[in-house]
C-alpha cells in the first residue's frame, strides 16, 4: 500500500494537471516555440519574446517557468535569455502529431470535463448541452459545430494515419471475398481496404446510416472505385446485412458499454455463415493497467466528453466478448509500444474471430 | 538536454493532466470514496458501487482504472472487488485540505484555462467575461458570484489556517507599536495580529477600500477588539497612510507584476519613518525552480484565472525589489517543506525590511 505522503503527492499531481496542460499549450499558442524554432541560434529575453508575441515580459517569465523546469525550454539564469531545450529535439512531424492532440483536449475536453460527474450520472454528455447547446453523442452533435469537429478531426486524422496501414497489414483478404466495413462512415475505410488489399474481384461494402450514402458514393466515384465499393444504409443495432465473408469493425466498439458491444457482435455473428470472419480494431488497455497511459485518458474522454459510455477494454475482455457472441478468436495483435512515438496514448489491438458452427 | 523521447513524454504527461484531474475528482464527487471510507472492511464490486452512486457498472469500471493504477484504490482482479488503497491512509483533516483545492481548480480554473492565451494577450481575465459575464479581476468580480467565491474561499481558508500562525510566529511587534495591515480586507488580519501579539497598547489598523469599512468595524466589534483595531479607507496605489511603525503586507504582492509591486513598496517606504518596518508574506518560488511544484500551478492560475498578471517570485527577487524601494532586508524566512503536508503546493516566504534613512 502506498504511504500517506505518496498518496498526497498523487492527489497533488492530479490537481496540478489542468494548470500544467494549459501553461504548456499556451507557450505554443502564443507563438513562442515557432519563433524560437525559426531562429534556433538566437537567444531571447523575456522582453524580446513578450514584444514579439504580444505579452508582458512579466507574463513571459511566469509562463516559461514550467517549460524550463520540464526541460522543454532552457533559461540562462545569468543573462535571462531563453533558448529551446528538449523541444529542439523535435521535428515538424512530431509537432504535427502532438499539437492536434493538445488542441483536441483543450477544445473538446477541458470545459466539458467540468460536467464529468453529471454526465456519468445522467448517462449523457451534459457538457455538450451546457456549453454548446448540443444533444446526442459527441459524434452526432458536432456535425454542426466547426470548432469541435475540426479539433477532433485533426487529432483523429493523426491517429488513423498511423493506425490504418498497420491494421490492413494484419488483415487477410482472399480473392473474390465480400467484405463489409461496419459503421464505415462515408466510405474511407472501404476505399483503404481495396487499396491495401489489391486481390482479384474484391468487393467492399460500407454499412452506415442511410444519410451517409450520397457522400460515400461520391467518394467511391472520386477514388475511381465505384465498381468495387458499394454502400448499404442501415443501423447496426437494428440488423447487419448478410452475404459477406469478412466484417471489419474499426474504431467503433470502444464507443459502447458491454451490453451494446455484445449486441453488435451477436448481430454480426448472426449475419455471417459459419467460418465467416470478423476483424475488430480498437484502442485497448494492456492486461496490466499499471503499464498504461490510456487509462489516464480514455475514461474521462468517453464518459465526460463524447459518449457518456464506452471506453477501451483489455484484449482478454474483447476476446471473451467475441467468444460469448459466437466467435472463435483466432488471432490477437497488439501495437508494439516500441514502434510508437513516445507521446502517443492510444495503443490499438486487432482481434480476429471466426464464426462458430 | 532531454532526449527526444523524454521531451515527447513530457508533452504527453502535460496533455493527460486535465483528463486525470477530473477522473480522480469525479471518484470523490460521485461519493465512491465516502462510501468506502464509511465501510472500510467492505469489498465492493463495480455493480454495487454503481448502484450506490447512480452510475453504470461499466462507468465505474472505467473510472476506477486510473485510481487503481495510481494506488489510490485497490482492485482484486480475481473477484472484481474494490477497496481503498492509499486513500485509506488519509484522515478527515487530509480530505478537508485536499478536496477544497481540487474543487477550486475545477470551479475556478478548469473552464477559464481555455482562455489562458487570450487572457495573456489581453492583459485581462478573458474567461471571467466569456464564461460568467464578469469584468475586473477575479477578486473583484466574484463578490457577486457564489459558486466562484465559495470554491475559492474554501481553498483560501485551508491555506491561511495553515500559514497565518506561522506568519505571526515570525513577526516581532513591540509594546505600544502602531501596525498597519495593508490591503487588510475586512479586518481579519488585524484581529489575528492583535490576538497573536498580545503586547501592551498594540494598535492595529486595517487599510483597504472604503467599502470594506462597515464590515471591518463590525468584525472588530464582534471580536471585542473595537478599542484596539481600526480601519482607514483608501487605495494603496493612490497613497499609504503615515504614522505607523510596522506595515504588514499579506497575500497581496503576488497579485501584481513588478512595476506594481514596486509602486506599492515605494508607497509604503514613503509612508514610514527611517527605521520603520515592513513584513511581506507571499507565496514564493524556490531559488532552484526545478524543486518547485508552485511553478506548475501559479502562472496559469494568476495569468488565466484571477489577475491576468502577477505570480510568486523568488525570495531573492522580492528582496531585490524591497532594496530598490528603499528598504534594507533584515530577514527572510521560507516555509520548511518538511513541515508541510505533501500535497500542499504554495510555499510561503516572509521577508522583513527596514526603511533606510
From TrEMBL, chains A, B:
Keywords in alphabetical order: Methyltransferase, S-adenosyl-L-methionine, Transferase
Keyword Methyltransferase among record annotations: yes
Domain O-methyltransferase C-terminal span(s) in chain numbering: 114-328
Gene Ontology biological process terms in this record: methylation
Gene3D superfamilies: 1.20.58.1390, Vaccinia Virus protein VP39, Winged helix-like DNA-binding domain superfamily/Winged helix DNA-binding domain
CDD domains per record: AdoMet_MTases (cd02440)
GO molecular function, one term: O-methyltransferase activity
Annotated SUPFAM superfamilies: S-adenosyl-L-methionine-dependent methyltransferases, Winged helix' DNA-binding domain
Protein name, entry field: O-methyltransferase C-terminal domain-containing protein
